[in-house]
Design goal:
single chain, 322 residues, mainly alpha, globular
């Protein structure tokens, strides 16, 4: 066993502090020094993986995670980070396996929380709830995950209670505030929300961004498709990725397939591992006669996600038979 290296200890500590503070440029510099002193250890490689994850360099992170899981299969920390990479890429089944392995190696409430988040995404709500309630005993952050779980179940009352509980301990938290506003809007009658939007417009005020998705959904639900289209097209340039994806699903459910296809296409690159997203994108495109655009997009993106080649072959075959 090699003797302790005080320089390595200091570099690791400084790198962890930089990562914790999201000082990524500083973390990059420290990692360069650490690689010179200690290039191959599990600790150095794990910190490198954490840096890639925090820097949103998910392609590199995925490749490194696969390598490190083979090199250090008994590391709960490596398995946890690998699961977080897979989760961020929406490869939820793979993430679940990593988190289960991490929890087996080193049981911890944080891993329980990640398991709960992942099970929520997979629609296994009962299992997810029990894990998130257990994690809630250690961290209020689990309340946000419980809120989203209840939203997925369309239990707006329970979701609102979770977000309110979080806001009592973190007043003014922007994400929780927005989620609570959305949940309250979902409990309104569609006509009431439309009336509120019209009242704001009369006073020259725009509907808050957080309510826009519910407004569009309400317009479709009340048979006001042309108004929904007009409002959505006017707001289209200002949509962020999260809202754009949500609105794509709203349009898909409302059978506004041309709008859904346009929105799905705009955010395709960040959803290449999301099977439901790809299936809905292809379905929307087929119903508005835009399958050639899907194939073009898949050809462009297939080098970074090889599973698209199979989808391309399947689409091309269906188009020939049509």
């Amino acid at each position: 066993m090699s003797p302790p290296n005080p320089i390595v200890d200091v570099l690791r500590r400084n790198l962890r502090q930089a990562l914790h503070g999201n000082s990524l440029e500083e973390a990059e510099k420290i990692l360069l020094h650490l690689r010179k002193e200690d290039p191959l250890s599990r600790e150095t490689r794990g910190l490198e993986l954490e840096l890639l994850l925090k820097a949103h360099r998910l392609g590199e992170a995925q490749a490194l995670a696969q390598q490190l899981c083979q090199l250090f299969p008994d590391s709960g920390r490596i398995q946890l980070l690998a699961g977080q990479v897979a989760y961020r890429q929406k490869r939820y089944s793979e993430a679940l396996a990593c988190f289960h392995e991490s929890q087996r190696i080193y049981p911890h409430w944080q891993t329980q929380q990640w398991l709960g988040k992942t099970l929520t995404q997979l629609g296994l709500f009962d299992q997810a709830e029990s894990l998130l309630l257990a994690a809630r005993e250690h961290s209020t952050q689990a309340l946000l995950d419980l809120g989203w779980l209840y939203e997925r179940q369309r239990d707006w009352s329970a979701a609102g209670k979770s977000y309110n509980a979080f806001l009592k301990e973190h007043p003014g938290h922007s994400f929780a505030t927005n989620q609570l506003t959305r949940v309250k809007a979902k409990q309104l009658d569609p006509e009431a929300l439309i009336e509120e939007a019209e009242t704001l417009a009369e006073f020259g005020q725009a509907l808050p961004e957080v309510l826009f998705e519910e407004y569009i959904d309400s317009l479709f639900a009340t048979g006001q498709g042309p108004a929904a289209r007009e409002a959505l097209l006017a707001r289209l340039p200002a949509l962020d990725a999260r809202q754009g994806v949500r609105l794509a699903w709203v349009c898909h459910r409302a059978q506004a397939y041309d709008l859904a296809c346009r929105l799905f296409l705009s955010h395709l690159e960040t959803n290449l591992n999301n099977f439901k997203y790809l299936a809905a994108f292809e379905s929307s495109a087929r119903k508005c006669h835009r399958l050639p655009d899907v194939l073009d997009a898949y050809r462009r993106l297939a080098p970074q996600e090889r599973k698209l080649y199979g989808r391309m072959r399947s689409l091309a075959s269906r188009m020939r038979k049509a």
